[in-house]
Amino acid sequence: MGDKTLIMTFLNEAGNKVNVSVSGVKDDLTQAEVSLCMDTLISKNVLHSTGGDLKTKNTAQITTRTVDILAVI
Question: CA 5, CA 10: separation in Å to the nearest integer?
């Protein structure tokens, strides 16, 4: 079973990278949806980092973690 996590990376006012992770993303998430989400987070100014407000999008990626559950005897 795979657990997908969206990792969005922004640049803040100080020019530092800031990661925002969302776990449990849907399998058919599109690049356009991610871009819109990132634009919304920046424009609504809902997140703050130690280097100031988020200013620009940098990258986004989806990671998949596989977990194998073993039966306990």
Answer: 16
**Looking at the 3D structure of the chain, how many domains does it have?**
1
pTM score of the predicted model: 0.86
Instruction: Please give the residue range of the domain that contains residue 55.
Output: 2-66
pLDDT in tens, 15-58: 999 999 999 999 999 999 999 999 999 999 999 899 999 999 99
Kindly calculate the radius of gyration of the chain based on its CA atoms and give it in whole angstroms.
15
Please name the helix (run of DSSP H) or strand (run of DSSP E) that holds residue 19, with its range, or none: strand 17-23
Q: Which two tokens stand for residue 59?
A: 């990258």
**Which residue has 């039966």 as its token pair?**
71
